Amino acid sequence: MGNASGARSSPPWEQSYFAGSLSSCTATLHQVSLDDEYQVSSSSTSLGEKLDSACCLYWSLGKDTAMSIGTDQLLRLHQQVGQDVAYFKALIVHDEPCSGLIYGAASSKDMTSADYMVRMGQLLCRWGLAQTPVVGMCVGVEIGQIFRVSLPNSGNRMSYHGPVVVGAQKLAQSTRQEGMVHMSTSVRDQLSALRFLPVIISPSASTYYLDAFTEVLREAEIAQDVKLHRPSLSVAPVRSEEERAKVETMSRDTFIQILQKHAVDLTKFGKGAAKTLDQFYDAVVQEEKCYLQVQEGVLKRFVELVRISIRIRDDNGKLKELRIQSEKNSDGSRRERNQPLAMVMRVGQAGNWQQAVSDCFMSKFELSEQAVQSCLVVAKDAYSYEENYALSDRIPGIMTTYKTHNVSVVIKDRKRKELDKIGLPDGKDFKTQNGATSWTWASVTNFQEEELMVLLQNHGIDVSEFSWQSFAELCEEVYEKKHSTIQAVNGELVRQLRIIKVQLSAQVLNLKHLLVMKSKRQNGRTFVPYPLRTPSMRMRASMTWEDAVAEVLWEKLGIDERLQQEGLFVNVAHFREEVEFSQSFPGLKTVYSITEVNADILNPQDLRWQNLGLPSAVDSIYTRKETTAEGLVDLIITRWGWTNVAEVQNMFLLDRNKSEPSLFDNRRNSIRDEERVTDQQRRQVTSPEPYMVSDGDELIIKRVMEQKETEWFHARKAAERIRDKDYSCEDFYKDITTAFPELRLYCVQRQTNGKPASVDISQAGGRTGDDEYQRTMGALFCVFWLMRMHLDGKESFSFGLDNKWQPRDKKSFWEAEQDDLNLQAEYEKRLNFYQKTDWVALEDLVVQSGMLLKAGGPHDVDRTLAMLVLMTIHDVMKLDILRPTVAQGIKEFSGYYSGEQIGDHDIALSYVLEHCPTALPSFNGLRKDLKGTIKFTHSKMDYNMGWLVQGEAPPGALFRSFRKVILSGAAKDSAADIAFYFVHWFADLAGAEAYPMQGCEKFVLKFPLKVLTSFIDSFSTVWNLGPKTETETLQDYLVWRWKSHDPKLGDPPTGPGSIAKMRLVLMAQGDSKEVLSSLAKLPKVDREAIEKEMAMTGCETQHFTRDSVQETQGPAILVYYGPALLQKAGRKDPEAALKVLAEVFKAARALWPLNSDDSDKSVIVRIDVLKEMEASQLLTPDPANAYVLLRGSNIDGQVKKVEVGHIHDMDKASYQILHLVDSEDEAQKAANCPPPNFRPKARFSGKFAFLLGR
User: Which listed residue, of 69, 383, 721, 1029, carries a Cα 20 to 30 Å from 850's Cα?
Assistant: First the structure.
């Protein structure tokens, strides 16, 4: 490592900058001698002056960042580095534009040099991830020797080199994940204040990663909650299992060669407790007591055994168990065991544990078969099976998986003479095998705790440092719940826990949303997790990940087996390991084996997902009961919420964008209930008192609203004065809460036997009625602010209201809590929304709806009042107690039949509006035409706005239901009523967060402005639907988007392929010219497939006038997640992504051939399994698997990854293999002829087969 003169070789992407526009940055390099700042000792060597051993940090920019970073951002990076260096009293000894080396500070009383450097690296990574655009940082931390030398022509400046420099640089450059600190084992071992941090084990198990957003807490804070957050970012994915190496009868030499080939140290055999090589050879080859396999390139040993618990009671009534006391080693020493009776099963006995039990007593104690049968019996309901793995001290260097059958054996009569061979009837100690094995009848009073205590003490762990609660918890965890195992690994005791994490996602409004925990109330306290936490749980020892997924979805979210099967697509699991030392169990190393799965919700519009807050992606509540250790029943209330990528990035900005470094993070994940209540009061409006009702057969809403009347004076006052300067939001709030009696419906609470329910939850999303009330007020406030954009509406919408009901200003954020940098960052994001939102387009929407007569006013009081009534009532049916049952005189209503309760809250409200409008007096008091407008707005449109703005769908699938409602006459003034519908849609979503005093947070803080703008821009095209056909409307939109594209693309295309070109530009949302160029380069058959299929309309007799495709048959094909494919794989290789898209179209057309009967239909083809993959992954030959399009029904299908061995069993008429490889039909070839080493696996069947996506 040299100095800034360029002594070290730089990566190609870094070299390009030295000669480019950023070369001036080299003048800012900080070169200083260590003697200027540090007291260091040194000695001369041939390598230069040798300094004290040091902890060094090397940082460099990730490749993509280095190629794109601007000068301003680069200078800010170096300012941040300098700030962190000064805070941690470190020293920059080497500095370049895109990399640097930092010499760590000396250790202090509480922090080692390793602590300082790891923490500094974490803060640098955090800073980079919080920037826009993100600055990818590669950070390596190493400990070792460093030398300094003055190089010729360097002007007497010192340069630094040595093992620590090379090591830190290598760690940074070999990191598998930008934004993480990559540290060596030496650094990990030197951590002191940070020793309890959970770190991720690298695939090589020789280095460790620290996530940028892992909380670094003081020990006092850790003690409050020892279950620390573990980062959700996976860096050590599961590697595919290699072919198994079956060890058949072989010579001893061949056996030894296998061990040596897999780097097993033969010198350790025959020493201490270890078996000799001959004993190991006999056990594997001659006796077949175990077998070997090669998995992931590693030789592993598998042992199947039966563990037997046989117990008696002595004369004092104490329970005793037969246990192995000790065994004689090969060198004559004795090995203490204290283990229950067990028998290793021969390979040929696989699974036959019953016979192994008999063989055990016959071989170990020389009992006859008759004696075993007449004296002993296996206890019923006492069998269990488990698998775990560990390094055995008997077989050094080879990981062993133990497949254990646990049984209990009952003695019929212990006075039988045959049983004196096992020390009965008195329970005496005895020996077998000529004294080689000693047996004892040991007391089992707390035997598990005693066994655990001995195990800990034998490995140097001081049990006296454990609290009695933590020791009991550990014992219960290991022996009773079987949530962890404790094994000796390389002489060190390791606690192993298996964790399942489920990333449950849904596509909502064109964005991928992830389900996360918002809060949990348990044991009387409210816990707010930070960072975001997905559904997870500890796995039992014998549990498969498939069963764990099913259990966590049911236990934590209430998703039943049928919905899991029908509504989810679960991707391949990812695996990683993390290690930490727990404060609850001092000295005990804990390894977390974490399995992550991605579960995609196939159809968020499915009503069965309402309990999780879909399709609107709002918060939901799930309650469950749990029995405490004291036998009490605790009600656990968990609030779940949906978050998108933009919201996650916003959280990084709000919670991590700190300009000043610190040694520790402030603890945030647990708050007092009184603090939570105070915060909610500040952010919410006051809710009405609960209105108690009992269940009944009649229409409950009618009973509740009986004799309730609308205060029309206040209702009209709110509508009339909504744009007055001296009419505040507080005035508006008072008027609407006085005017509309329907608002009390949100506070209806069920009572049973005269008592209120402990927690009254609305079925639609599991939310409380108060949540729905707050959301409704948020939507009403949004309407108020949209009507006042000429006054304070924009400010209130963007910044929210203070305690005087006035728009908050900068002072409100800066001075509310002087040290709260989060609020300051939040203000900046709100300000950005305020400045960049197209308010003119929003005002135009309100004008088109008829609420405003023209831009700037005046307004239509009656249509405004109709909107206020609609926003008041539109969600009342989300409370399941209010949803009606179809009356006996009505045969059917929207798919629900007489006597059935209506489950869909929208249909339930439509039913009341149609058949019992007097139950909603505010609606019933409106003019007839305004009632019609509300009914139209509340109709089932089946309109997916994301399909439009991304060019994803043909016009039939996109607009048919919408236009059908319009043509039915429900919309009297179609353009105005459609715009009215969009105002309702916009206000409803804007108020989705249950904090109306905070402004429209959903859009301002948690929604990408670019996506919102695309939605708003689309409104003006859609409200012409009705007079124009579905196809004309979509074509107008495509042409408008092409003309408004930046940079300009020229005149909108006409002729062959024109519709495909315009749709692909919207789908890709990237380099449009590159996409169009790639389309032209495709082979003719692929290009024509895309051009024809994307010009199909799915509307009988309709064609695009700008395109030459005039197909009269159908169906049209909608590739669901086609935009995601082009935005992921197409970003780097658009031509490859288009080839994949063409292959999907061709396969779909083969499964759904053109015919005249389907000219008015569309088929949805889901490509979930392809959407997140890079093009290189999709086009790489895989002889063991194939991508197959499966026909699900006449209107849908799905691409899945299928093992080629299973393809032969599938119905040939129901699938098409996707030929994604250019060279030849590799997938078809693989399907017809399995590879030489291929062994078909057993088909994964049963209730969880769906988890593998098959």
Answer: 1029
687, amino acid identity: S
Residue 82 sits at the vertex; the CA angle it makes with 81 and 86, to the nearest 5 degrees, is 115
Contact 398, 301 (CB under 8 A): yes
385: number of Cβ within 10 Å: 13
What angle (nearest 5°) sits at the alpha carbon of residue 682, between those of residues 677 and 685?
A: 95
Task: Tell me the H-state helices in 1069-1173.
Answer: 1072-1081, 1084-1093, 1122-1132, 1134-1151, 1168-1171
**Degrees, nearest 5: CA angle 911-1026-1095:** 115
Give the span between the Cα atoms of 770 and 687, in whole angstroms.
Answer: 7
Cβ-in-10-Å burial (0-12, 13-18, 19+) of 63 comes to middle
**pLDDT for 14:** 32
**Mean pLDDT in order along the chain per 10 residues (1254 residues):** 36 29 30 43 56 88 87 90 91 91 84 92 88 86 88 72 92 88 91 82 79 72 37 27 41 85 86 85 83 75 87 73 86 81 79 84 90 82 72 83 84 87 91 90 72 81 70 79 83 87 87 86 70 84 86 91 88 77 79 88 85 83 67 73 69 51 60 45 73 65 85 96 96 95 84 51 55 92 96 95 91 62 77 93 94 93 96 88 86 86 85 92 94 88 86 93 82 82 92 90 86 87 86 95 91 95 92 91 95 95 93 93 87 90 96 94 91 77 87 90 84 88 46 37 33 34
In angstroms, the Cα distances linking 1130 to 670, 1069, 1139 are 43, 10, 10
Cis peptide before 1047 (omega within 30 of 0): yes
**Number of other residues whose CB lies within 10 A of the CB of residue 208:** 24
Indicate the angle between helix axes 712-720 and 729-739, nearest 10 degrees.
150
Asked if 654 and 643 count as a contact pair (C-beta separation under 8 A), the reply is: no
Residues 98 and 82: their CA atoms lie apart, in Å, by: 14
Instruction: Report helix, strand and coil shares of the chain as percent, to nearest 5.
Output: 40, 20, 40
What is the torsion angle, in degrees rounded to the nearest 10, for the CA atoms of residue 891, residue 893, residue 899 and residue 901? 180
Q: Are 352 and 304 in contact (CB under 8 A)?
A: no
Residue 143 CA, distance from chain mean position: 35
The pLDDT, as a whole number, for residue 15 is 30
Question: Is the separation of the CB atoms in 576 and 201 below 8 Å?
Answer: yes
User: Given CA atoms 823, 826, 830, 831 in this order, what sign does their dihedral have?
Assistant: positive
SS (H, E, C) 139-174: EEEEEECCEEEECCCCCCCEEEECHHHHHHHHHHHC
Q: What are phi and psi of 670, to 5 degrees?
A: -135, 125
Do 644 and 1002 meet the contact criterion of CB atoms below 8 Å apart?
A: no
How do 399-411 and 384-391 pair as beta strands? antiparallel
Tell me the chain's radius of gyration from C-alpha atoms.
Answer: 35
Angle at 1184 between CA 1178 and CA 1189, to 5 degrees: 55
String of DSSP letters for 979-1041: HHHHHHHHHHHHT-SS-GGG-SHHHHTTS-HHHHHHHHHHHHHHTTBTTB-HHHHHHHHHHHH
Q: Residues for the chain: how many in total? A: 1254
Three-state secondary-structure class, residue 326: strand
Global pTM value: 0.65
Q: 58 CB contacts (<8 Å, ≥6 apart)?
A: 99, 100, 101, 102, 139, 140, 141, 142, 165, 168, 169, 171, 172
Closest CA to 197 of 230, 223, 236: 230
Strand pairing category for 180-184 and 137-144: parallel
Angle ∠(649,650,652) on CA atoms, nearest 5: 65
- Which residues face 1080 on adjacent strands? none
- Nearest CA-CA partner of 311 in 303, 299, 323: 323
Angle at 845 between CA 941 and CA 871, to 5 degrees: 60
